[in-house]
Design brief:
Blueprint: E1 5-9, H1 11-19, H2 24-32, E2 35-40, H3 41-51, H4 55-70, E3 74-76, H5 83-90, E4 95-97, H6 101-109, E5 113-118, E6 122-126
Parallel strand pairs: 1-2, 1-4, 2-3, 4-5
Antiparallel strand pairs: 5-6
Helix pairs in contact: 1-4, 3-4, 3-5
């Protein structure tokens, strides 16, 4: 049996679930087959801060957290002083799911793989 692909999620992708009604988890499974989802602790901290910004953000974070529980997303420790650095450190061994253009560019420069939202409705993989 083939091993699962590892996908590390950024806050921008997690918040896509509520904002654009895209099931990031199911789309990733369609692209990659069996998937183990992870979120760096720095990303978890970031979405907790975002929840404090207002009602809309709090609702988006609540939807993201519910989806994370439903898909057994593991919170992992990763090197880096912020969320982007933590995701970059994971990019050697995981597909990074992000909508952050700058982070995407940095990951691709390191020959990593990025999963991102295209046209507000499709998840695409690039490497």
């Amino acid at each position: 049996m083939a091993s699962a692909s590892r996908v590390a999620l950024d806050s921008s992708m997690l918040l896509t679930i509520s904002e654009f009604k895209v099931d990031v988890f199911e789309e990733a499974k369609k692209l990659l087959g069996r998937v183990d989802f992870v979120v760096p602790s720095k990303v978890k901290e970031e979405i907790e801060r975002i929840a404090g910004r207002g009602l809309k953000e709090r609702k988006s974070v609540k939807v993201a957290e519910q989806a994370m529980r439903q898909h057994n997303v593991q919170v992992v420790e990763a090197e880096g002083k912020n969320a982007d650095e933590a995701l970059l450190s994971l990019s050697a061994n995981a597909v990074i799911a992000t909508n952050d253009r700058e982070l995407k560019r940095k990951i691709l420069e390191k020959n990593g793989k990025v999963m991102f939202l295209r046209k507000r409705q499709f998840i695409e993989l690039s490497s």
